[in-house]
Amino acid sequence: MERTLKYKRILLKLSGETLGGDDGLGIHPERAELVAKIIADVRQHNVDIAIVIGAGNLWRGRTGIERGMDRATADYMGMLATVMNALALMDAMERMDMYIRVQSAVEMRAVAEPYIRRRAIRHLEKGRVVIFGGGTGNPYFSTDTAAALRAMEIGADVLIKATKVDGVYDCDPKRNPNAVRFERLTHMETINLRLEVMDSTAISLCMDNNLPILVLNMWQPGALIKAIYGEAVGTLVSSE
Q: Is the dihedral of CA 160, 162, 167, 172 positive or negative?
């Protein structure tokens, strides 16, 4: 029996640590290649894929702020770091014969297209994977919020947050072996319970626009493919 896609266009939110080593720091080409292989497997199912990647492997603005750095300066540094990650991922994906475009909300035409919504949608329609760098282009907003914003702008069916954990738990499963995993949550429950799914701005944006969030373990074999077909995987955060 042929399976039917539940999500035909996805926004994949990756943390910067995805490209890091065992300590989550730096850019390790072999990690980028592993991520590229996972995305290539999903792309073979004719799903439109857009990506937002964080920068925690290169720079954490919180560290600078704690030392007295201006918040806006710290955030702009983070935006630049996301473009570095986007280029590393682009290179790994292109070597697997995928067609990639990097768009940046912070204009740097020598390395990336400026973010233009209609152009991004056109790339997706042509079968290209689009990586959004530079966050929202504004300080005080996280890459979680950038992912929610871009997902809505391109008409994504779901925002998939790819992590190292197989869903959302009521507490840290690494510290508490009795932690309980949620299969489904509403956006409001996620906010009220202060669950660390995404920041509250991103969740509120998804709630206001009825965009589901799926949290899953990207490294679990076949998890992303199960997700696009609507099979039970991870934790689904939705309006229902």
A: negative
Q: In this structure, are residues 85 and 19 in contact, taking their beta carbons and an 8 Å threshold?
A: yes
Closest C-alpha to 131, from 42, 240, 49, 60: 49
Measured distance CA(172)–CA(164) in Å, rounded: 12
How far apart are alpha carbons 42 and 23 in whole angstroms? 27
Residue 3 domain-assigned? no
List, run by run, the mean pLDDT of 10-residue segments along the chain (240 residues). 88 96 91 97 96 94 86 94 97 96 96 97 98 96 97 98 92 85 94 90 96 96 95 92
Contact in structure between 179 and 171 (CB atoms under 8 Å) = yes
- Structural domain tally of the chain? 1
Instruction: Give the 3-state secondary structure of residue 133.
Output: strand
Domain containing 93 — which CATH number? 3.40.1160.10
